[in-house]
Amino acid sequence: MSSRPLAAPNPLDWPLTHGAVLFAVMTVGIAALLGLGVPGGRRWWRRRLPGAVVAAAVLTVLLQIAVDDWWQPFPEELPIQVTAWIGVGLLALALAVARLLPPGPGRRRGRFGVVLAAVLVLLMSSDQVNGFFEQYPSGRVLLDSWFGRAHPLTVASSSDTVAAPSGRALAEVWRRPEGLPAKGTVSSAPVPGAKSGFKARDAYVYLPPAYQAEPRPLLPVLVLMAGQPGTPADWVNSGRLAELLDDFAAGHDGLAPIVLVIDQIGSAWGNPLCMDSRIAKSQTYLAEDVPDWIHTHLQTATGRGSLAIGGMSLGGTCALQLAVNAPQVYGTFLDISGQQEPTLGSHGKTVKATFGGDEAAFDAVDPMHLMARRKFPETAGAFVVGEGDRKYGPQQRRVYAAAVEAGMRATFTAMPGGHDWKAFQGGLVHNLPWLAQQMGLIR
Fold this sequence. Notes:
The protein has helices at 20-37, 42-71, 80-100, 111-133, 139-147, 233-237, 241-250, 282-297, 314-325, 347-355, 359-363, 367-373, 392-405, 421-438; strands at residues 151-152, 161-162, 185-189, 203-207, 216-217, 221-225, 258-262, 307-312, 332-336, 380-386, 409-415. By secondary structure, it is of the alpha/beta class. A 9-stranded mixed β-sheet has the order 1-3-4-7-6-8-9-10-11, sandwiched between helices.
């Protein structure tokens, strides 16, 4: 009896954040850095090498100050590990400039080698930063993030549907038909701000295998959001959304929640904070425009019990905000590594930008203040944080405690990882069964 040899893994699927590729890039990068730093010559050791080191250190410090204290494009500060690896990249550039300037070593020979060495060090630095966030776990994800395009959403309505009877889960009355596809579909679709005027980038829609059946089951919907900076494609590519949902559907006769990955920020660097304020009517977009679009363009279960909202990082913060500011819309939420309060970098800056410094107006929509004043016994929420997330771990625990005090049916889970895709993706996988139960899909 002969056996067919196993196919070799596609190099595009080799992991970039651990294993042989990371080790090889690290080894070559360190060798290149040493090659840049040790060319020899008295002038080099006395002047150029110290000058390059000082220049790289100053640029690194200035970069962190500019990003964290002046520009503040992120809700959180740059992690020290990320700053350090950016500094290594800047050092490589400084060393390359020092070597190429006349009459430095390498001027008459080896210019290509100097440039190549700098590129290799930059590649190592980028790979280490990527490894910290686990944004691109493989080359395929990286290429999909840059060049991948989903097909526009084109789904016909079904004349025959299956709904969950009162008091029962949909899975209890659903039977998988013959010939049902094993995988769901991912499409793109514009979700305009008809009422809010909010200008969002195209959303992504995951439709599970069962959505392609006839009769069609009326499935619940999870509205999912990425962080900032970010794009809805982050959940599709870095989060491997379709694979996770397909795996869930495979164990439930093709049933899984429909997932709409929405753009709640409008641009990679934007942050309207998911509230109606001077910046934008982001809450109206998420609480009215998005549900209206869902029920107009998709055949789904209806009611707050069939609609959940979730996200990671800023998206997690937004999910909690919508759960307490629009509880009549979203009955369930998933807050993965969110913040204690909406922020543009500091409390004072946030209140000034959103409500002109009016603290009372901010408190009226801030989840912690709302949960202190009001009970939410009909709301279910899951809080997730990475075990190594020292910044958001304590914040998530405080928010979780406030949710429990406010009467929510809340859960808390610490997942392996930090403030990265290992924790984000793991948090979604861990809570998919819980979400499906809360939304009436399974028992």
